[in-house]
Amino acid sequence: MPATPGQTQIGFIGLGIMGAPMAKNLLKAGYKLNVYNRSDRPRVQEVLDAGGIRVGSPQEAADGADVVISIVTDTPDMEAVLIGEDGAIHGVKEGAVVIDMSTVSPKATQEVAAALKEKGVQMLDAPVSGGDVGAINATLSIMVGGEQAVFDECMPVFAAMGTNINLIGSNGAGQTTKLCNQIAVSVNNMGMAEALMLAAASDLDVQKVIDAISGGAAGSWQLSNLGPRIAAGDFDPGFMVYLQQKDLRLVLQAANDIKLAVPAVGMAHQFFNIVERLGCSEEGTQALIKAYEAQAGKEARAK
Q1: For 153-209, what is each residue's pLDDT tens digit?
Q2: Phi, psi for 251 (deg, rounded to 5)
């Protein structure tokens, strides 16, 4: 299976906040894309305008494709578009590769990989990190599970979407690594929110505090990227709260399966519950600050 632009037909499933810019970057790199999305959104039209050809089902997207890429919301969605009634498994040809870039259950990933293998199709699980900015700029971190030879073959495809691309292990390893990523992200987010809330409750200028601490040991992606959004009162999503919650449920499930204590994740999950209760589930994860604002009775905004 060639994976170089101009020689490779890709079926792309899922054109959301992440999927649409990723598909556009593949088109920009010279790949031919048949695309499928379950709903009509402006982002879908953007991909079509960039050269994608819309089809009516995951099966049609996979028909004749050398590579099938899916990036959908949750485990049941992944199972539906890949092995469901009109899933890609019914259209994908022997020798093709399916790359699932969703964040889903490692155990379910292994089961889907086994079903595809029975049809002579290899699977890579390749969840991503970097948010909408990384998707737009093709600078995503991509964590991959699968066979080395298949990974090597698909590297040009990955390189059109990301810059930090790593094979971790066999199928499911990419998903488990993404869950490790989400532990670090969510707990870091909680630490940032507590720091900025203390600043605000102490009548400090939140943006000045961010500027002062982000260059030292407290520095992080969360503080540098989400901190200024909090200070500006910008809660537009790069990654939505309800998706973060889905990922944290996957973390808690995976940890429970191996009897591992992850108390900080449980606390982050509970604070995001407060954010969802406030009606902010579709805001960006920087909205975690609102759980702290609710108990402090004060907003964390730059003065």
Answers
A1: 999 999 999 999 999 999 999 999 999 999 999 999 999 999 999 999 999 999 999
A2: -60, -50
Pairing between β-strand 32-36 and β-strand 9-13 as defined by DSSP bridges: parallel
What is the H or E stretch that residue 153 is in? helix 148-159
Provide the CB-side half-sphere exposure for 208 (13 A, CA). 6
Query: What does DSSP say about strands 128-129 and 122-125: parallel, antiparallel, or unpaired?
Result: unpaired
Is residue 276 a contact partner of residue 242, using CB atoms and an 8 Å limit? Answer: yes
Selected catalytic residue, list 24, 28, 178, 290: 178
255: left (phi over 0), alpha (psi -120 to 50) or beta: alpha
C-alpha distances out from residue 211 to 64, 90, 216, 225, 302, Å: 52, 53, 10, 12, 12
Domains annotated for the chain, with CATH where assigned, are: 9-169 (3.40.50.720), 177-296 (1.10.1040.10)
Q: pLDDT tens digits, residue range 217-234? A: 999 999 999 999 999 999
**Number of C-beta neighbours around residue 249 at 10 A:** 14
Global confidence as pTM: 0.92
28 among known catalytic residues: no
Which candidate, 56, 117, 64, places its Cα nearest to that of 93?
64
Do 140 and 163 contact (CB within 8 A), yes or no?
yes
